[in-house]
Amino acid sequence: MALSGIQIYKMLPQTNCKECGFPTCLAFAMKLAAKQVELSACPYVSEESKKQLAESSAPPIRLVALKAGTEVKAGNEVCLFRHEKTFYNKPGLFLRVKASDPDLAKKVAAADAYKVNYVGMDFTVDGFALVLDSDAAAAVKTVRGATKRPLILIGDAASLQSGLSACGGETPLLYAADASSAEALADLAKGKAALVVKADSLDALAELTQKVQAKGVEDIVLDPSASTLGKSLTVNTQLRRLALKNFRALGYPIIAFPCDAKDEGIAAAQAIAKYAGFIVLSEFKPELLYPLLVLRENIYTDPQKPIQVQPGIYEINQPKPESPVLVTTNFSITYFAVANEVEGSGLPAWLVVTDAEGMSVLTAWAAGKFDAERIAKAIKGFDVASKVAKKRVVLPGHVAVLSGELEAELPDWEIRVGPREAVDLPAFMKQALN
Amino acid sequence: MPVDIPKDKWPGSVRAVTIGATSAEGGTRAKTVTIGGETTLPYLQFEAPTPNKPVIAIEIKSRKPDDWSPLLAEAWGEAMNDPAQWAKRAEDSGADLLVLALTLADSPDDAVKAVKSVLAATGLPLIVWGPGQAEKDNELLVAVSEATKGERLVLGICEDKNYRTIVATALANGHLVQARAPMDVNLSKQLNILISDMGMPKDRILMDPTTGALGYGMEYGYSVMERLRLAALQGDAMTQFPMIVTPGFEAWKTKEAKVGEGVPEAWGDWKARAVNWETLTALALVESGADILVLRHAESVKRVKNAIGELVTA
Ligand code: B12
Ligand code: SF4
Fold first, then answer.
1. Are residues B156 and B166 in contact, defined by beta-carbon separation less than 8 angstroms?
2. DSSP string, A300-320
3. Which of A85, B6, B195, B236 is the most core-located residue (most Cβ within 10 A)?
4. Ligand 1 pocket, CB under 6 A
5. Residue B226 touches chain A, beta carbons under 8 Å
6. pLDDT, tens digit only, all 434 positions of chain A
7. What share of chain A is helix, strand, coil (3-state, %, to 5)?
């Protein structure tokens, strides 16, 4: 449990020597309680106090890592709203597969190979949730033959035991301990696996985490068993709030099962936005996975840092001196919208990415970060003229208004206005730029 | 182990706003729609019930659009050629109210005719958008506003560069306005102040925080909405308006929704993906506090409505 300033004060030397930079030990203690300073600023704390304080300053939500050939982490979050800081560990997306499925190996292999690109990043499925409804050990081996990603094992105590015994040198997640199975499963999981505890009230959930923790299991995941969107929003919010208030018994990541919801996509989207750490989906559907992966990226993007690319001149499809010159901004989404479109068309082009402080075309234009002056500076700075035979530059259609000013800045260049949307660029390049 | 559940109690609340007027109230609508009134964060039933559940508007146009995704053209079919028919189909698809978007090709007479035909075809409350060019917006919206006095339509879209004419005509004819600011808490407040200062009653303003599509800036709008709602609950009067968002418009602009061929195989089935794009954009905004969601595809409408239904039942 988190300590108050007064409790911390009692563990400090109480000499008011000021070396920590604060006038009194009490002032320093208050700052510590508010997590605004590091304990190491006081050179005189005893080892004993250090240990106690370290425990109380552990993150409000325990970081739980599932490990195999890859790793999936959840927890360590520090806020309720992303704008307060950021959300850190993207919830893992797991696909549910069944041990009894004759196509198990094939299905796992297909989903394992899935890869989708969003603004230059490759996204994949994070792991598999294996339902142990027939020979568990054999199924684990089959799955292991098809993927190196972490596993969630779902079954009763006996099947979990045999499934776990087939897992070597990895950390899976076992599902799930309830009031009757908590002790047995804790013994099973200890030192080998993370463990889900499942109950339908927070009181019971807290009881269970204490029970399995007493048995030596630290890596715990919560299943609050909420059956509707409303219930799950309520309980996940309560859990996040309690954890942030340092209520240790519930300071663990949450697992969600959109696979059982009426509308899987909606339930999974809510789980991503509202605090789930592990998310189990019913089957491999790229048309749902892709938007969910993008949603997760959006929600977990640090609001203070727009995703950017390096300003510069980018060569697309091996441009030659006569290939066209296109200008855009260095906001990742913008850059990739244009670059992917041109690349996909097979048409060669020089793409000049100006430093617009990571903003989209119109945002940057409205903020004065994408104007004729900046564009001209980029064209000159990257020495575009030396690379091309024809001094002609294409502006995004949304900033057609800049063409006059740009002519003034670049008198020996021909300024052309392209289409508004990148999708229409290939057609424009074929028709208008010959 | 007994757990003490922390509850928030807020000094402020969102204003309730009613759109549309029945014949008893000076209009012709069969029903009205009331939104807003929240006293806590979205759907936290353990703190307070959701007094008015968020609603779905379906966006239709006065003329058949030529730049909409083929999937939408397929879904609405012939109805797209006639706003009245389209409105009827939208009502049958579960819309709680409608958005009629006028186009640059409309004359004031065309606009009035389209609005009247939509009002005659359905009993739903109506939001009318200009084509998005200041002069044309003003010309068309003034004509529409005068011809529909007392209907409590919502007129939009007011932005800082162009709001006076729209607000004045809405004020004179008993309508409401939609106030859009580009994803910024302070700019939203500022525009709401300017509009209120013209004498617009506070229960006739809808706040539009600007929406980005999933993958194209959605998260900025998402966080601005959370911040606006928090400000409203903390008692900041100029943020205490219901929020209207346009996930349909934004999502259907994206390549993911618009294009079926020559895209990565990893994007999956086109139609399902396109509807997911709109639905998930909308759902995220539902979570961050939207009161009116303007959508385009009937399947998204059904899914988002069901989700809201599940969220408001404790
Ligand atoms: C997300 C967003 C933001 C985010 C910024 C995100 C970022 N890193 O850029 C935030 C919230 C920070 C923001 C802030 C502002 N914003 Co803003 N924002 C948006 C929003 C919602 C989406 C922009 C986006 O990401 N689009 C996606 C990218 C991929 O689009 P894009 O860069 O234009 O690229 C496309 C095309 O231009 C084309 N293209 C790109 N390059 C090229 C090159 C060539 C050659 C060709 C042919 C085509 C092409 O292809 C791309 C895909 O089709 C838009 C509204 C909207 N829904 O579009 C408003 C918008 C751009 N913002 C606007 C404004 C006014 C602002 C602010 C000035 C408001 C303010 N005072 O605070 C600030 C400015 C920033 C600042 N001072 O710090 C206005 C601009 C209005 C105008 N026309 O002047 C918009 C249009 C909203 C509105 N309707 O009022 N914004
Ligand atoms: S350095 Fe340590 S002992 Fe000295 S005032 Fe600060 S807290 Fe107290």
1. yes
2. HS-TTS--B---EEEEES---
3. B195
4. A 306, 326-328, 331, 333-334, 337-338, 358-363, 366-367, 394, 396-398, 418-419, 421-422, 425; B 182-184, 187, 210, 212, 216-217, 220, 250
5. yes
6. 467 888 889 999 999 999 999 999 999 998 888 777 888 889 999 988 888 887 766 789 999 999 999 999 999 999 999 999 999 999 999 999 999 999 999 999 999 999 999 988 999 999 999 999 999 999 999 999 999 999 999 999 999 999 999 998 899 999 999 999 999 999 999 999 999 999 999 999 999 999 999 999 999 999 999 999 999 999 999 999 999 998 999 999 999 999 999 999 999 999 999 999 999 999 999 999 999 999 999 999 999 887 889 999 999 999 999 999 999 999 999 999 999 899 888 999 999 999 999 999 999 999 999 999 999 999 999 999 999 999 999 999 999 999 999 999 999 999 999 999 998 999 999 988 76
7. 45, 20, 40
CA distance B1 to B62: 61
Predicted ipTM?
Answer: 0.93
From atom 29 of ligand 1, which residue's Cα is the shortest distance away? A334
Q: Does B173 touch chain A (CB under 8 A)?
A: no
CB of A42 sitting under 6 A from ligand 2: yes
CB-CB neighbours of A115 under 10 Å: 11
Of the listed ligands, the closest to the CA of A44 is 2
How many secondary structure helices (H) and strands (E) does chain A include?
Answer: 16, 17
Write down how long chain A is: 434
Interface check A284 vs B, CB under 8 A? no
Three-state DSSP state, A33: helix
Its pTM stands at 0.89
Give the residue from A149, A157, A139 showing the smallest Cα distance to A97: A139
Task: Quickly tell me which residue has 């014949």 as its tokens.
Answer: B23
Cβ of residue A18 lying under 6 Å from some atom of ligand 2? yes
Mark yes or no for CB contact B215/A294 under 8 Å: yes
Asked whether the beta carbons of A264 and A93 are under 8 A apart, the reply is no
CA distance linking residue A224 with residue A239, whole number of Å: 9
Distance CA A379, CA A383 (A): 6
Question: Tokens at residue A295, please?
Answer: 């949603």
Q: What whole-number distance in Å separates Cα of residue A206 and Cα of residue B303?
A: 34
Phi, psi torsion values for B35, nearest 5 degrees = -130, 170
For B45, which of A203, A230, A250 is closest by C-beta distance? A230
List A393's β-bridge partners, or say none: A325, A415
- A151 near A193, Cβ under 8 Å? no
SS3 B156: strand
Rounded to whole angstroms, how far apart are CA atoms B85 and B103? 18
Q: How is residue B99 written in tokens? A: 């958005």
* Cα B280 to Cα B295: distance, rounded to the nearest angstrom: 12
**Residue the block writes with tokens 């959300």:** A87
Contacts of B165 (CB under 8 A, 6+ apart): B138, B141, B142
Pairing of strands A349-354, A414-417: unpaired
The Cα B46–Cα A234 span in angstroms is 7
Mind giving me the DSSP string for B174-210? T-EEEEE-SS-HHHHHHHHHHHHHTT--GGGEEEE--
Residues 294-313 of chain A with CB under 8 A from chain B are: 294-295, 297-299, 301, 303
Please give, one letter per residue, the 3-state secondary structure of B214-239.
CCCCHHHHHHHHHHHHHHHHCCCHHH
- String of DSSP letters for A159-222: HHHHHHHH--S-B-EEEEE-TTTHHHHHHHHTTT-EEEEE-SSHHHHHHHHHHHHHTT---EEE
